[in-house]
Design a protein that fits this description.
10 helices, Arc Repressor Mutant, subunit A, 2 domains, 6-stranded parallel beta sheet, single chain, Rossmann fold, alpha/beta
Length: 218
């Protein structure tokens, strides 16, 4: 008999955790080995339990899901993380995927979609609900082509800011990382968008991802 997929469930709402546990407990292919109520606890539980798949919300106290994903992936690049969130905002989705999540489902997804996604993430595949996939496709289609001005047209500091945007950091986090004021970071972000003819931070993140692929492919 194949060992069950060991899960860590992370959500600050007790009723959500209980509902997920009740659903998963009915499936012999899965085993809930731990629960966490916020991002900080998620990092600690992941370190102690080493689950096969982490099912995580984004909006939580003390440490949000995005930061938790970053810290978990920093400790273990092989971590398999599936986001289950009410957020469907383009920028949040991109941030979660860039932070290291392997999949992203909206909480309105069916039980079958959730179980299928857990299996996919466990196998090392990406799993996105149709609605989330459409967001990514739309953003990629709206992203700049290779004819758009290259990052070299940016100043060194602007390039640094672009790199951190691509990693999903907020202005506050970028300010902390680069030892700048948030106002200065905001100015740099506006300059990056203007120079690269982009309409949003999400497009900036996608642009940086495209440029990185171009560099890797020679």
């Amino acid at each position: 008999m194949t060992d069950p997929i060991r899960l860590l469930i992370v959500d600050d709402h007790t009723v959500v955790r209980q509902g997920l546990c009740a659903l998963i407990d009915e499936e012999p292919a899965f085993l809930v080995i731990g629960q966490a109520t916020d991002g900080q606890e998620a990092v600690e539980k992941n370190r102690a339990l080493r689950p096969d798949v982490i099912l995580i919300d984004l909006a939580m106290p003390r440490m949000d899901g995005l930061q938790a994903i970053r810290e978990i992936v920093a400790e273990n690049s092989e971590a398999r993380i599936l986001v289950l969130s009410n957020y469907s905002d383009n920028q949040i989705v991109i941030q979660a995927i860039k932070a290291g999540a392997s999949g992203y489902l909206h909480k309105s997804s069916s039980a079958e979609e959730l179980l299928t996604a857990i299996h996919a993430v466990y196998r090392g595949e990406s799993s996105l609900s149709p609605a989330i996939a459409r967001i990514l496709v739309n953003e990629i289609n709206a992203a700049p082509s290779q004819s758009t001005p290259m990052p070299e047209t940016l100043s060194k500091r602007e390039t640094d800011v672009l790199d951190l945007i691509a990693k999903g950091l907020s202005n506050q986090e970028i300010a902390h990382t680069l030892t700048l004021s948030e106002r200065t970071v905001s100015t740099h972000v506006s300059s990056v968008l203007r120079k690269l003819h982009l309409a949003s931070r999400t497009q900036a993140a996608l642009y940086a991802m495209q440029m990185e692929k171009i560099k890797k492919n020679g």
